[in-house]
Design a protein that fits this description.
TIM Barrel, alpha/beta, globular
Length: 256
């Protein structure tokens, strides 16, 4: 199904694949827009040392800047803008003290639940770019009233960016739901490492199909730890990386 997109299997590496291995990096995206680098407030970096190590990885991978997006999820990570911004300032200070000159901004990855609806009603949301807000759904159950909530976001002037849609299993069996989200004005964000099989074969297959159908808008690392950085390197050595390199992602339009 994906031979046209990723090429057919051959015995031994081709010259083009070897060229990609030698020269590949992520500079074509310029900016990463999904990661978890504020220390100690979610399931990402736990210490400033972790954060600095991951930012060095972003530099080595070729990124020019990042917008990190801690979870805001009522049952597990009850963060808010103040907590995130305080953590950002501590992180920026640590980068300066270590002579690391790398632009880091912060937004959030909002979990769509009742608390999110309350926040939408009562306060300003943190945006990854202009009016765009990164949101995630349950991995198990499709959120109730999801279309109503998305519409409410838009009436408030926000544009929803759906994080890693390929990972929502309930959409795998009704693929048209992805097109419906797009038709309703949402943007879709690929987790790059989904293409390596990191989250399983079915997620990989759906990610490939969404790419083939040109339904993605953003590409993000969703970086939590060094294993993710190593998987990003693994992807750079694959044929699918060539497709990412030539896909019209919106990351480059973000400001540092």
């Amino acid at each position: 199904m994906f031979s046209k997109l990723f090429g057919s299997k051959k015995s031994g590496p081709s010259s083009s694949a070897s060229s990609i291995d030698r020269n590949a990096n992520w500079s074509f995206l310029k900016n990463d827009m999904h990661s978890h680098l504020i220390p100690g407030i979610d399931d990402g970096a736990q210490t400033l040392e972790d954060s600095i190590a991951l930012i060095r990885e972003f530099q080595a991978l070729g990124f020019e800047g990042i917008t990190t997006t801690p979870h805001i999820k009522s049952d597990y990570y009850p963060n808010d803008a103040a907590i995130i911004n305080n953590g950002l300032q501590e992180l920026r200070k640590a980068l300066s003290e270590n002579n690391i000159h790398f632009p880091v901004k912060a937004a959030a990855e909002y979990y769509v639940d009742e608390r999110f609806v309350e926040m939408l009603e009562n306060e300003s949301l943190m945006t990854i770019n202009e009016n765009e807000v990164l949101i995630e759904f349950s991995f198990v159950f499709e959120p109730m009233r999801v279309h109503e909530i998305l519409f409410k976001m838009q009436t408030k002037g926000y544009k929803p960016v759906i994080a890693h849609p390929e990972r929502y299993n309930y959409y795998h069996i009704k693929y048209d739901a992805y097109r419906e989200l797009k038709d309703r004005g949402c943007l879709l964000q690929l987790n790059a490492i989904s293409l390596t099989g990191y989250y399983g074969r079915t997620v990989k297959d759906v990610a490939e199909r969404l790419l083939e159908d040109k339904l993605y808008d953003y590409c993000g690392s969703d970086m939590h730890h060094l294993r993710h950085a190593e998987t990003m390197r693994k992807l750079m050595r694959s044929k699918s990386f060539h497709t990412l390199h030539h896909y019209p992602f919106l990351n480059a339009r973000m400001t540092n």
